[in-house]
Design brief:
heterodimer, A: alpha+beta, 7-stranded antiparallel beta sheet, 7 strands, 34% helix, globular, disordered N terminus, B: alpha/beta, Quinone Oxidoreductase, Chain A, domain 1, 2 domains, 7-stranded mixed beta sheet, 6-stranded parallel beta sheet, 18 strands
Amino acid sequence: MENSMSTQTPIDKQAGDLERWASIIGGGAMVLTGLQQRSLKGILTAVAGGGLVYQGTQGKSTVKQVEDAVGLDHAIRVEKTVTINRSAADLYSFWRNLSQLPTFMRHLKSVQVIDDRRSHWVANAPMGQDIEWDAVIVNDEPNRLIAWTSTDDAPVENSGFVRFQPSAGDRGTEVKVVMEYQPPGGMLGTMIAKLFGEEPEQQIGDELSRFKQLMEAGEIATTEGQPKGA
Amino acid sequence: MKAVCWHGSQDVRVDTVPDPKILNPHDAILKVTSTAICGSDLHLYDGYIPTMKSGDILGHEFMGEVVETGPEVTNLKKGDRVVVPFTISCGNCFFCNRDLWSLCDNTNPNAWMSEKLYGHSPAGLFGYSHLLGGYAGGQAEYVRVPFANVGPLKVPDGLTDEQVLFLTDIFPTGYMAAENCDIQPGEVVAVWGCGPVGQFAIRSAMMLGAERVIAIDRLPERLALAAAAGAEIINYEEMDAGIALKEMTGGLGPDCCIDAVGMEAHGTGAMALYDTVMQAVRMETGRAMVLRQAIVACRKGGKISVPGVYGGFIDKMPMGAFVNKALTMRSGQTHVHKYLRPLLERIQQGDIDPSFLITHKLPLEEAPRAYKIFRDKEEDCIKVVLKPFETASSLPAAVAT
């Protein structure tokens, strides 16, 4: 495990790492393969903050920083890419208006934008329960990338980014979502597991498909409410 | 309304169900005036297509009159008489833009199911399993048509339902099968299966310049229909079709081979028995006798076209023959939207009158019997058209072939 103590990394090594992470997030390779044991949250915060030495979003303890930097092995990570026949600018604009996300993210009840960086998320959970958390945008590159992380008091720690990249051969824009979340134990953990389903990749994939349908076809294909025999 | 619902293997019923509603802004609702039973519906009837649910409304060959449109439907209005492609396409994605309509990215709400089985999802289809969208079909009094700006084609006055109904599937399907052969002057086309798609493939191959067409089946009434179109015929129960094809083509083999049979092929001999057993115990989903024979019969460097439906896996694929004879194979669900207008013109010009195929016109209530006689080839049944708003007394019991 290289760089297990990020606070002791020499300056030139830090710069090298940063370049490497920036290129993994912005490049064509599988992001999660590059991530290995590192935490996505740590990387996103580091890249956004300009160095691997960072104080986190709300002045976290050294132990927490180290955890973020090296990652916790029970994190659930998902990476999914879809090509959409629209410009990166169109797709970015729709997504950046976070309150529109529940249109195609079925498990979300609402996203309330608090200010330019902060937002409040409410998700439907089984048995009529709701799960709520606040998120902060840690990196916002117009028409290219939006990265976010939950605040420290979130019941489910989650972070991720969505990247919009013009695809080769005039096929539109490749939209890549990379997400990581730490399921807590107990009842809440069980609820979260149900929320994201047994196959989080499929769920993120379905959400991206619906985003694509909305942006390309102008509506989300459905059969809900059609007649059937008894 | 009344609708033909699937309830299990060889169990279709006419149920009373709620009328369809507009669910999305680009939807339209049709009052169905004519709807046909397709050979591919028999794969559902026999339970070979996975992900059907009890109560699913069947039918993907239908036409009718627009009775309601969603707020974003701009090119149709109440009262328009339209035919509807069996493939549902958005009109805006990578595939629709390249005329590959049946591969539309955006119309299968259950894409994840297909992605698990096929790697990617094709377009949603009407009434053809949840794997392919789970859309309620058109063997009903009314049907909801999504993406109504893109699919439905208005029918010009002066053409009957029977003349244009098959634009929804089997005419374009047979035509695309012939087009996929890239027929060159002087070429011989062999067509396995003289059912509806085979009949259109035979006629389309001739329209596209085939020198000779050889049709293979075992049912006299179907072979007679092929012969009437000018095809030479092989009854494979009377002779070995592979040997006959070689003899009839001077030892070369046919240049183009069309499998218009698909996953429920019948045959003779040991391989046929093998397939029947393997399929019965669900070790393979398709009996690929025809495809195997086509690959072995085809001339070196020739072309195989597969309009016949396969849903899952087949066994004993003669890959050695395919590779060593340098064959080309093309397939796909039909890109119906691409063919609608050109084939309508063929009908208007009198190049073909698709109504030649119809042997039975029945009220919707008779669907359960219609499925059975079509599957079992009783009453010389080749093609059934159901009429949801007509009664037995207003329709002849059977139409002469």
